[in-house]
Every structure is written in C-alpha cells, then in structure tokens.
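Late entry, evening session. Most of the bench is empty. Finally got around to the prediction I had been postponing all week. Sequence below, unchanged from the version circulated by S.P.
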Amino acid sequence: MANDRYSRSPQPRRRGLFGNVRWGILLLFIGYGAWYWFSNRSVDPYTGESVLIDSGLDASQEKALGLQAYQQILAQERPVDPSTPVARDVRDIAQRLIAKVDVVETALAQEHGQQAQHFSRDFDWEVNVIESEQANAFCLPGGKMAVYTGLIPVARSRDAMAVVMGHEITHALLRHGAQRMAQQKLTQIGQMAGAASGMDPQQQQMVMAAMGYGYLLPYARTHETQADEVGLMLAAAACFDPREAVPLWERMGQASGGRSQPEFASTHPNPGTRIQNLQALIPKAMEYRQRFCESAR
C-alpha cells in the first residue's frame, strides 16, 4: 500500500525559542510597570488623593530642575524692570499668596485626615514679569514664577491676578511636575513593553493614542482642576476675592476667541466645566477668606 502523505495527522507547531523569550520579556516589563506604580504611590495632603511620584526624586533635585528651566526661560524672554509698578504689584500679590501657603496646606490636610508636609518651606521663591502678549503665568518646582504682561489686561484686577497666580503656585505645591515625570516613565515602560510584544509601529501608535485619551489627558485635566481648587483657597486666604475667578475665566475664554478642543482631547477642562467647578467652590473659598484673612474678620 502506497504511503498517502495527505493522510498523516498534522503535527502540532512548536513555539520557537524567540517567542518564549519575547513573552518573557513582555511579562518582565508588565511586572516592572506594576511594581513602579504601587511602590511610588503617596497621598497628597492638599487633595487627600493617592498620587504617583518617583521616590527617587527628592526636593533638591526638583528645585534644581525648576531653576534650570527658569534660567533658560529668562535667557530667552525679556523680564520687565523689577522696579516698575507692574512688577512691584505682581511681587506683592505673590508675597501675600506665599504667606498663606502653610495655613492653607494645614487646613486642607486636616480636611482629608492627613498630616501637612510643608514641602514648600524649602522653596526659593522668585517672581518676574515677562514682556509678552501671552495671557499666561507659571510657577516651576522650587517656587520660580513668572507672569506675562499679556495676562494683565485680561485679569483687570489684583483679585483676578491672584486667582491665576494661586493656580500656578498650586502646581508647584502639589508637585504636579514630579507627577508628570513619573507618568512619563510609566508611559516609556508601556512603550518598551509594546515593542517587546512584537507590535508593529502602527499598532503601538494606536495603543499610545488610546492611552492618551483614556489616561494621560484625564490625568492632566485632574491637575488643572486641583490647581483651580487649591489656588482659589490660597487666594481667598490671602484676602483676595475668590468670586473674581468666574468672570476671569469667562474673559480668558473670550481672549482665546472661543477656540477650544473638545474636553476629552484637551489637557484642560473646557471653560464651561471650569466655571461650573469654580462656582461650586466659591462658598468654601469665602469660608477660607473669613478664617484666614485678618482684614475680613
């Protein structure tokens, strides 16, 4: 009887050594990512929320990074003469806000059952006004701040300027920069895991886009919302009127020409959401003003 080569039972495929190694590497990346996520969690006393901050990044390193970035900005941008009235006014607002950081942190920490860490006591605070049409301001890790002159006609008042500056100071107080750095490291681990799994570049791009919309952008919007809330309490405690926050952000929306991305695709809440959140916070902010602003009593 002739051998029928078609009658033979199919032999099971053996997974090659490369496939086993590839999946092993993928599992190692996943395990490392999980370990990094859980081992670098801490509770923020301002918000009571668990946050991701690399435990290897200490305050001195953050300050050094902030100072380096600040020096680079001032080397490229033109600060206003510090003796001008606008520069003196901005410094005065900053000093009043900074003076209330400790009491606001203590109050918020108590609300969340936490102990205030007073991380910012080692900050080397500094503020400059920069000549620019941008309606913007920033505060870097370590307390280096700047206000762009384009913000002044939009703010219109010291109260509104204090709301913006309180918001920016809060980014530094809550270590949002350090959180973003840890988030970027976790993203890099995910990218390496995708490459190790054998995904082609297009598949990796699709996964990263999904991660951006599902995790990275909401994470950034959370930071903005936190900065709005804590910054408003800070402005109120420093005797500024927190009710100016709502018309301020209405003007900010008008200054942008009403152009904004859909919220799900943006790093910031849309103006309507932001204003609703701020309106809900006004009663609490007024309580902080009554408690901590000596002239309001």
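Two things to note before I forget:
The CA atoms of residues 26 and 197 lie 6 Å apart.
The chain has ten helices and five strands.
Will write this up properly tomorrow.
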